[in-house]
Structure to design on (431 residues):
């Protein structure tokens, strides 16, 4: 019966992979409901490091069923690459532990090509996408010209719909962007063949999630990206193309919103962002570089250096409220060891006016100056600590300051990349 939602409460890369993998040990079913291969969820098990892009993080737990919901944009090439990669490392992946929604939209090569060309076209106004074809695929979905996984399974239908889609996309690629059009027959053959390989995984994922819930199974909904990249509530247009918080679950997994019992956000003890867009607490200096090095802040999907800055309580408070979070998990607390002093943005100054709440409008976010509260730092290495009482006083004071500022309790603290490097503080799982 219980269903848990876990989502990123910043701009992505909050360390969700490890925690979802940890929480998935108690889940019968793990569901991805939005995003696509733009995500990169890193899970470290012993000496092995896995980076999952499309496959839910429960795949490393034997016995867990993993569902890719209808709201995910699926690049079948990437999905099969991931399946092959996991199998090569001895992880079982088949139609019994991985199911792909027949209703999920497909990312084709032309989506990836157009993603890159559009970014080039936008020049200074570029979003800094991951280049995985996410925006163009969701755009086709909304324009009702996309193809879904079920369409790939019917060769004639697939050929005729893909032919029609490519005629228009090739015109765009060639005539607007002056780039090389894609070869029609090669594309048709390739995707029809891929459909066959996907067949064993294809299912009605929404029906499976609902049936599991009715059967009393434990479900975990795994958010990708972060709430501040939400297409509706984030820093639009510098966002991704889906609803990234608990708000995405009902549409993206065909799962009733009232069936989600517990909602938990994840945020780092500082802030990072990749790609363009406003970032009020960004440190474009030696301090930012120091956080990047100490936290190894480089993108797991694109390898890009992440922009780094202080914790932004305004953004996290907003993100947690949007999803009605019961509490949150703070990650990478260990990375902040060694700083004499830490800063936390508790509000913004907007042209002399003091704000405590997130301003919706982009120009306001861009001109917002953070109002900081100083917090004492600590020197101790936290990575071996497993009990809250073990943490240095200053680290505990920092955590307690954050939870007061974001109005939500810290339920767990992560102090390293390994599964067991966590400090439990409150109840995460639904009862
Ligand atoms: P897209 O999702 O590839 O279209 O990229 C849109 C924006 O979201 C860009 O700023 C990306 O850097 C960002 N983004 C997308 N996926 C992730 C992620 O998994 N982590 C962090 N940022 C992401």
């Amino acid at each position: 019966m219980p269903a848990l939602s876990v989502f990123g409460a910043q701009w992505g890369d909050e360390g969700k992979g490890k925690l979802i993998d940890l929480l998935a040990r108690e889940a019968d079913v793990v569901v991805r409901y939005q995003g696509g291969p733009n995500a990169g969820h890193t899970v470290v098990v012993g000496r092995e490091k896995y980076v999952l892009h499309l496959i839910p993080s429960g795949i490393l737990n034997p016995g867990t069923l993993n569902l890719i919901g209808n709201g995910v944009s699926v690049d079948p090439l990437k999905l099969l690459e991931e399946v092959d990669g996991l199998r090569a490392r001895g992880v079982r992946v088949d139609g019994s532990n991985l199911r792909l929604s027949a209703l999920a939209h497909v990312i084709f090569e032309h989506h990836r090509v157009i993603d890159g060309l559009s970014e080039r076209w936008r020049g200074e106004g570029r979003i800094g996408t991951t280049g995985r074809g996410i925006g163009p695929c969701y755009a086709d979905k909304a324009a009702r010209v996309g193809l879904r996984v079920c369409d790939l399974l019917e060769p004639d239908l697939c050929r005729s719909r893909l032919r029609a889609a490519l005629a228009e996309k090739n015109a765009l690629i060639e005539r607007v962007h002056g780039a090389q059009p894609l070869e029609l027959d090669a594309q048709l053959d390739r995707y029809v063949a891929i459909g066959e390989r996907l067949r064993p995984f294809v299912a009605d994922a929404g029906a499976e999630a609902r049936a599991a819930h009715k059967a009393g199974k434990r479900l975990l909904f795994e958010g990708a990206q972060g709430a501040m990249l939400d297409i509706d509530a984030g820093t639009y247009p510098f966002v991704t193309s889906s609803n990234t918080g608990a708000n995405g679950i009902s549409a993206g997994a065909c799962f009733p919103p009232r069936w989600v019992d517990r909602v938990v956000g994840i945020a780092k003890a500082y802030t990072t962002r990749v790609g363009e867009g406003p970032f009020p607490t960004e440190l474009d200096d030696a301090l930012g570089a120091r956080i990047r090095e100490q936290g190894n802040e480089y993108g797991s999907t694109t390898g890009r250096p992440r922009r780094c800055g202080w914790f932004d309580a305004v953004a996290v408070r907003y993100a947690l409220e949007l999803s009605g979070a019961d509490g949150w998990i703070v990650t990478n607390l260990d990375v902040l060891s060694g700083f004499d002093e830490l800063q936390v943005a508790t509000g913004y100054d907007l042209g002399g006016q003091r704000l405590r709440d997130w301003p919706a409008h982009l120009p306001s976010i861009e001109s917002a100056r953070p109002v900081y509260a100083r917090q004492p730092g600590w020197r101790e290495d936290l990575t071996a600590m497993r009990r809250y009482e073990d943490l240095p006083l200053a680290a505990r004071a920092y955590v307690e300051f954050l939870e007061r500022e974001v109005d939500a309790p810290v339920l767990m603290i992560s102090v390293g990349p390994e599964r067991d490097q966590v400090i439990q503080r409150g109840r995460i799982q639904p009862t």
Summary: The chain is about 30% helix and 20% strand. The chain has a mean pLDDT of 95.
